[in-house]
Each structure stands twice: as structure tokens, then as C-alpha cells.
Amino acid sequence: MATAEPTSEPTEETAVETARRQLERAAAHLDVDEGVLERLRHPDSVYRVAIPLERDDGSTEVLTGYRAHHDDVRGPYKGGLRYHPDVTEDECVGLSMWMTWKCAVMDIPFGGGKGGVVVDPKDLSAAEKERLTRRFAEELRPVIGPMTDIPAPDMGTDPETMAWFMDAYSMQEGETEPGVVTGKPPVVGGSAGREEAPGRSVGIIAEKAIEYYDWDVAETTVAVQGFGSVGANAARYLDEAGASVVAVSDVDGAIYDPDGLDTNDVEDHDETPGMVSGYDAPETLTNEELLTLDVDVLVPSAVGNVLTAENARDVRAAMVVEGANGPTTSTADSIFEERGVPVIPDFLANAGGVTVSYFEWLQDINRRSWSLERVNEELEAEMLRAWDAVREEYEARDVTWRDAAYIVALSRIAEAHETRGLWP
Ligand code: NAD
Q1: Where are the domains of the chain?
Q2: What radius of gyration do the chain's Cα atoms show?
Q3: pLDDT (0 to 100) of residue 271
Q4: What's the rounded mean pLDDT across residues 162-166?
Q5: Contact criterion met (CB below 8 Å) for 330 and 304
Q6: Could you identify the atom of ligand 1 that is nearest to the CA of residue 229?
Q7: Domain 43-179 falls under CATH 3.40.50.10860
Q8: Among the atoms of ligand 1, which is closest to the Cα of residue 250?
Q9: Residues having CB within 6 Å of any atom of ligand 1
Q10: Is the per-residue pLDDT at 13 higher than 60?
Q11: What CATH architecture is 189-424?
Q12: Percent of the chain clearing pLDDT 70 (strictly above)
């Protein structure tokens, strides 16, 4: 809906501002009760806890932890726990709202949560990180649980952190409760296929979008920024589907082969950091050059805010599928809208992660374990269902793909609120 030519970025939005702006944009297309909207503008609750940590030298430091609960009308709160020096209450609230929309667009029976500890994980020894995690789990115990709020790994936390968290919670509850967190190692209730899921879902959604625009996948060229967990799995999925992945990158630069790279031959970031830019390809490019390559599909899968007011007009890709969280600034989004370049949004495309987290939780609470084949089959089915719901809104209204996805999410949440009503 942009008419003026945006050339520079407005001052940076906070996570809460972004989440509220998207809520209002979606609400403008729907007949949502104002009382429900007002409830969704605010988190249900935000907990702040002091976490006393005994450092390895015997001193005690008190760290601050948060857990934001945005909305649980459709099921338990769900969202990551991050350990990062920039964690704030505001950021947790904004990201918890974003999780509400993400679970709803996938039709997963979860609401939105997010939390974290204000700490630089690089400053912690393994033993300190374990003590911090166990105490944080204990401080949050009154407000989390398999049927109330289910944390997951995020920046600075990993499957091992989730195993400590689950163990601390279980010891205090007196029974093993694997369903209290997801993203655990498989030996303690983690799911097959969890690690690959966000990248696979980006590939599945990109393939559907290619089909939607009547492109022949065998004739489709793809550039992927960031060859890590998300980027490598998305690139390999699309390569296998028949597309030609011509460029991939890591933080040091990109490799380019106009005839298509063998994505299984390029090692990903986890396998060998630096291997992408060290790979023997016909050409090398900078990350900036990759973003403006003449390809059909651009998949930014590294970090946020890489498509901006400065480069959005130079992007030559015919479509953007967001693998990373928030790779497109709101100004760049308006430029793509004005130029007619479809942008398939992150919270649909990379939602395979939360979807397989839901599968993990189902396996945990039912004490059953699914095969990788079953996980991948059910993931594909969930992604296709979500794609169809978003496509229907996209076709029915004159909106962007991002707005269509928010409309699907908000209509599901609003309907659940209106049906349950306001208690008391
Ligand atoms: P990762 O660390 O496995 O890989 C990141 C890749 O991006 C690496 O190849 C790295 O070299 C490259 N990179 C880092 N900084 C860069 C920069 N400034 N320019 C270009 N390349 C750069 O990370 P990941 O787990 O694949 O996550 C990537 C993005 O996807 C993040 O935005 C993350 O929040 C999002 N995401 C991840 C998951 C998940 O479960 N892994 C789920 C949903 C969304």
C-alpha cells in the first residue's frame, strides 16, 4: 500500500512495536472485536526473576531472567529462551507476541511465549551455564509446565541447555517431564528431524510458491544467503526438488556457479565453519552481491535486516522467501510491494521448527517416539495446510503474502477469543 518512494529506514522499531504494527495491519482487514484486539496488544503476564549464580571462583552474581506470556487462548505458551546480553523485557514481550502469530498461522494448539537471561553466554563456563540454567528452571517452575508454558532453545541456548532445564524441573516435580521443553537431545525425548525442520519448511514453502507462480522448478534458480542450519537445509531441499541453487554464502562471502552448485558437496557452517567461502567454485561473490544476483528466488537465511531501503531496489530476484527471522526491513517490504516482488514471510516459511517442536511435545506427553519419515511426512502435511490457508487469503484480498499470513493467524486467535468469551 506504499505510494511514496521510501529511500531511508525510519528509526528502528522495537520487537513490540513491530508485533503491534502487524496486529493493526491484519485487524484492518478483519472484523475483530475491539475488546479482543485490546487484549492482544498486551501480554497476559511478564515474569522477572533474579537468578543467583555461583561463579567458578566462588563469588555470587545475580542475573536477571524474564519470561513473557502473550496469549494462550489456543493452548500453552510456547517460545524460546535466549541467553544474550541484549535481552530486555520489551524484547521478550514482542517476541512472545510474534510466537502467538506463528503458532496460529500453523494452526498449532499453542500460544506465544518468550524468555531469556541477560548474560553473555561466552562469559560462562559449561558448569556456570548448567548452574544458571538449573536455577532459572527452578525460578520459572511456578509459571511453566507441559500444559502451561513450554520453552525451547534460542540464541545462546541449545539441546544440552534444554536437557538441564528439563532435568531440574523434573527433579523438583518428582517425575520425569520431557514435555516441559522442546529441542532436547533425542535420548531424553527430543524429536528426530527437529534440527533440519526450519530449513526443510523453507524449502517446502518455496517449492509451493514456485508452483503458485507457474514456474518450472527445474528452470528455477535460487540464491541462499547463510549456509547454516536453515540455509543449508533449505538449499539442499530445493536442490533435491530440481531447482538450480546457483549461490550460497557464509559470513565470509558467497560462492557462485551459474550451472548450479552440488549443495551436498558444500559443507555447512556447523560441519566446517569457513568451508563455504573456501569451496572451489567457479566464482566468488560478496554477500551484498549475492543479495542482488539475477535469480528467480532469493532465500535470505543468515541474519535479520539484510534487505533494506538501500538495496531493495537493486534486488533482481523475482521472489524472496524469508529463511532467517526478520531479514526484510519494513521499508524494504514496502519497496518490494511497490515493485511487485512477492515476499513469503519468515513466520510461515521457517515455522517448521515450532511445528516439529509441537511433534516433540506430542511424542513426550504420549511417551511415543516417531520415525524421521513420519516427522517429515507430517511436517510436509502441516506446511501445505498452512500454505493453502495463507494462499486463500492472498487470493481473496489485495494484500501481501505477509499480511495474508497475519490475517490467517489473527482470525484464528480472534475467533477462539470470541468463542471462549471474557471471564469472569
Ligand atoms: P546458523 O548459525 O546455523 O547459520 C547462520 C549462517 O549465516 C552461517 O552460514 C553464517 O556464516 C552466516 N552468517 C552469519 N552472519 C552473517 C552475515 N552478517 N552475513 C552473511 N552471512 C552470515 O544459524 P541458523 O540456525 O541457520 O539461523 C539463521 C536464521 O534463521 C536466524 O535469523 C535464526 O533466527 C533463524 N531461524 C533459525 C531457526 C533454527 O531453529 N535454527 C528457526 C527459525 C529461524
Answers
A1: 43-179, 189-424
A2: 21
A3: 61
A4: 98
A5: no
A6: 26
A7: yes
A8: 11
A9: 198, 225-231, 249-251, 269-270, 287, 301-304, 323-325, 350, 353
A10: yes
A11: 3-Layer(aba) Sandwich (3.40)
A12: 96
